[in-house]
Amino acid sequence: MKQVWNAYMKPFHVLGNLYFVGTRPASVHLFQTEEGLILLDTGYADTLYLVMDGIRELGFSPYNIRYLLHSHAHIDHIGGTRRLAELTGAKTVIGRADFDAATGKRDLTYAYELGEAFEEPFTPDILLDDGDVLTLGSTAIHCVHTPGHTEGTMSFFFDLVENGQTFHAAMHGGIGCNTMSRAYLERHHLPFSLRDTFLCDLMRLRELPVDVVIGNHQDHCDTLGKYARLQQGYWDAFIDPSEWRRYLDRFRDRLLVQMDQESV
After folding, report:
1. What is the span of the domain harbouring residue 54?
2. Any idea of the CA torsion for 157, 232, 23, 42, to the nearest 10 degrees?
3. What's the pLDDT tens digit per position in 26-84?
4. Which of 1, 5, 15, 141 is the most exposed place for a label (fewest CB within 10 A)?
């Protein structure tokens, strides 16, 4: 039996109208707006109760969620979606090219590689294309198609207002190189061009002004360390205008090393 409670992380206010609501294996974030809530990713089905507890602990109700927005269609980001959508009536939103994975038509959720089974597929209500904007209240989330980690990975750009200042925030929707290995691409009949597109997009994205980097895994951009600084009274713990480029460059270099090793 999996001890899923080990995935618990205390929910907290990040900046502006953005909150972290869990979990350790895969991050879930919440936007508070004047017209309801947006949940960014849902995590595993088994850890959904931790996410819901986190939402409630921060004083929100899961029943006020209007959109379930997804970075990409891997089981650790969409596993809890069907349950939460059926419970709350929230609309599900994902990149168009990840439709087949979300619906279970193609086995591309990375479930097998994680020793899991994707047993709760769903039919997305809204399919995102490059340049789309998801708006609720005064919150506008700009969506950029950044394939590589999956074919439909979407990255998100939005503003956060704190202490009368506006900060540009971003989440790269799928920065990991694990699904761009030669073995993975061949096994799932995916084009090797995904790697080239991913690298080109990194070079394009790194030129955008970003003050706050949000990760969809807590270990990607030191979420725990930043939370510790928040606890110490540093309200600006997540603000670092130089982090975005360093973050993208780190994963660019990882992929280049991986590709170089595979060519030997």
Report:
1. 4-174+213-235
2. -30
3. 999 999 999 999 999 999 999 999 999 999 999 999 999 999 999 999 999 999 999 99
4. 1
Nearest residue to 198 (alpha-carbon basis) of 179, 222, 211, 221: 179
Q: Helical H runs in 58-149?
A: 75-78, 81-88, 99-103
Please indicate, yes or no, if residue 185 is contained in any of the structural domains.
no
> For residue 12, how far is the Cα from the chain centroid?
17
What pLDDT score does 25 carry? Answer: 87
- Detail the DSSP E strand segments found in the chain: 12-15, 18-22, 28-33, 36-40, 65-69, 91-95, 126-128, 133-136, 139-145, 154-162, 165-171, 212-213
* CATH (domain of 145): 3.60.15.10
Under 8 Å between Cβ of 147 and 197: yes
Structure pTM? 0.96
Do residues 98 and 149 touch, judged by C-beta distance below 8 A?
Answer: no
**pLDDT tens-digit readout, 171-211:** 999 999 999 999 999 999 999 999 999 999 999 999 999 99
3-state secondary structure 15-79: ECCEEEEECCCCCEEEEEECCEEEEECCCCCCCHHHHHHHHHHCCCCHHHEEEEECCCCCHHHHC
State the Cα–Cα distance between residues 95 and 92, nearest whole angstrom. 10
201 domain-assigned: no
pLDDT digits (tens, 9 = 90+) for 213-235: 999 999 999 999 999 999 999 99
Nearest CA-CA partner of 224 in 12, 4, 2:
12
Query: Within a domain: residue 8?
Result: yes
Question: Residue 248 falls within a domain, yes or no?
Answer: no
